[in-house]
Amino acid sequence: MNGFGYQKKRGGKVRKLVLILMLPFIILVLYYTTYKLFLVPPPEVDGMDAFRLLPAEKTVTLHGRNLKSITVSITQDLKTRELLRDEPQTIESTYTIEMKPKALGLRDGPAVVTIEARSGILKKAEYKIDAMVDTVPPKLRVLDAPSTVSQGMGTVALLRAEGADSVFVRIGDGEPFKAYRLPEGPDSTYVVFFPVPVDTKTKAVFYAEARDRSGNRTVRTLPVKVKRKTFRRSSIRISDDFITRVIYPLFSETDPPAPAEAFLKVNEEWRQRDVRRLAEIGRESAPRMLWRGRFLQLKNSKVMAAYGDRRVYLYKGRPISRSVHLGYDLASVSNAPVEAANSGVVKFAGELGIYGNAVIIDHGLGLMSLYGHLSEILVEKGQEVKKGELIARTGSSGLAGGDHLHFGILVQGVEVSPLYWWDKRWIRANIGFIGSYSKRSSGKAR
Ligand SMILES: [Zn+2]
Predict the structure, then answer these.
(1) CATH number, domain containing residue 169
(2) Do 403 and 424 share a domain, yes or no?
(3) How much is the mean pLDDT over the chain?
(4) CA of 327 to the centre of ligand 1 (A)
(5) What is the spatial distance between Cα 211 and Cα 209, in angstroms, rounded to a whole number?
(6) CATH, residue 67
(7) CA distance readout (Å), 44 to 35, 65, 66
(8) Does one domain contain both 303 and 199?
(9) Which of 29, 44, 169, 334 has its CA 20 to 30 A from that of 65?
(10) Is 4 within the bounds of a domain?
(11) How do strand 177-178 and strand 166-171 relate by DSSP bridges?
């Protein structure tokens, strides 16, 4: 008995010891269970709106947080296909799902995407997304396009698209040049003004592309050949006097850089920045043609510099910078009256970097004219102007050695050679068909 009692006493001590030793473990298990049940952060899934419209091909990227498990499936006509199942071991997880509805046996029409995500035993989220499967690409046909174009030219093509949400032309995989629906023509006719930038390679390929709102696209190659053009080369001496008189006043800081460095900054860095600003300004244009006939050249003016001139700048006999001149420099008398080269709406009026005080007139469908280095601006943004209307006076603001007008033609925000746009015959031969086409087609429609 005694022994047993002793044993019992001893046994109690052991139990206590075991209990004490196990305590951290018990707390851990309790905490873990509580955590899993109540404290674990809820599951989060981002990016699932991309399932709403499902074209023939689409990559959907989902971002998950705190996921213990995730399943994604799509249901149509009571048939469910699993798209994803995973039990990630990390706090954050990213999934890319290649959606090809036809390969999944889905037909065009509504479907439901279900996402189930868990982060713990009780923390569960279920999302249902109404999806629309639409795999029919828009129809696209090239109705008219120039067979040859020159570097630095602005030109136009006529396209027919059906079921398209946006239509555009691009060079290689470059920026899209927006096509506009012809208001007078049938719904599916689009006109696109596009530039052939001065540095376009002769092997460049031009594409027309139509996209629908689901993201289906149809691409056609435009039968356009690029002709090389030789531009003038000139060298310009930069004097200290020019730096002090023209370059330094462009800097607002009290300590501008050394002369050659200051010139380089203005001529290259600022020029690039202004090219980007023009591209931005040129992006939004009136959806109809606001102009008619040839563009006007500054009255009684002499051409001081042409489009495409390749300039080398010499400072103390050493070449310090280069640029390509992207407009026409026209000189008349000081403060000469500047007239709107064609009818349109003032898109920009104010200070524009190296162009100084400038006016940009929107002629519609992505075509604009630019007037730089002005001493006085006589119009306001948003104002309608008629061809030949007085809009400004010439000057030497911005990067200009003396009083002159920098005249530019912008096609989709890219400066092209104004030469063609001053030429009545070129316009009639190359742009005239838009007017006749829209008349023809609206006649047919009636
Ligand atoms: Zn110029």
Answers:
(1) 2.60.40.2470
(2) yes
(3) 90
(4) 6
(5) 7
(6) 2.70.50.50
(7) 17, 5, 7
(8) no
(9) 29
(10) no
(11) antiparallel
Cα–Cα distance for residue pair 300/330, rounded to 1 Å: 9
Calculate how far, in angstroms, residue 286's C-alpha sits from the geometric centre of ligand 1.
Answer: 26
Q: DSSP E strands: which ranges in 123-164?
A: 124-133, 139-144, 148-150, 153-162
Residue 92's pLDDT is what? 92
User: What's the pLDDT tens digit per position in 17-52?
Assistant: 888 888 888 888 887 777 666 677 889 999 999 999
State the distance from the centre of ligand 1 to the C-alpha of 425, rounded, in angstroms.
25
Give 72 Cα–ligand 1 centroid separation in angstroms: 59
**Same domain for 261 and 188:** no
Rounded mean pLDDT, 278-301: 94
pLDDT for 442 equals 40
List C-alpha distances in Å: 307 to 175, 213, 319, 397: 22, 39, 21, 20
Pair (127, 146) in one structural domain: no
Q: How far is the CA of 278 from the centre of ligand 1 (A)?
A: 14
Say which CATH number the domain at 322 has: 2.70.70.10
Q: For residues 125 and 153, state if they share a domain.
A: no
Asked if residue 192 belongs to a domain, the reply is yes
SS3 281: helix
HSE of 403, CA atoms in CB hemisphere, 13 A: 13
Calculate how far, in angstroms, residue 322's C-alpha sits from the geometric centre of ligand 1: 14
Same domain (yes/no): 177, 297: no
> pLDDT at position 29, please?
85
Name the least confident of 256-260, 287-291, 383-387, 404-408.
256-260
CA 363 to ligand 1 center in whole angstroms: 21
- How far apart are the CA of 144 and the centre of ligand 1, in A? 33
Which among 94, 118, 133 is the end of a domain?
Answer: 133
Enclosing domain of residue 73: 44-133
- Tens digit of pLDDT for each residue in 316-336? 999 999 999 999 999 999 999
The total of structural domains in the chain comes to 3
> Rounded CA gap, 303 and 329, in Å?
6
Among 189, 214, 229, where does a domain finish? 229
**Helix, strand, or coil here: 220?**
strand
pLDDT at 10 over 80: no
- In three-state secondary structure terms, 138 is coil
Query: How far is ligand 1, taken at its centre, from the CA of residue 420, in Å?
Result: 17
The Å distance, Cα 306 to ligand 1 centre, comes to 8
pLDDT tens for residues 231-266? 999 899 999 999 988 898 888 777 788 888 999 989
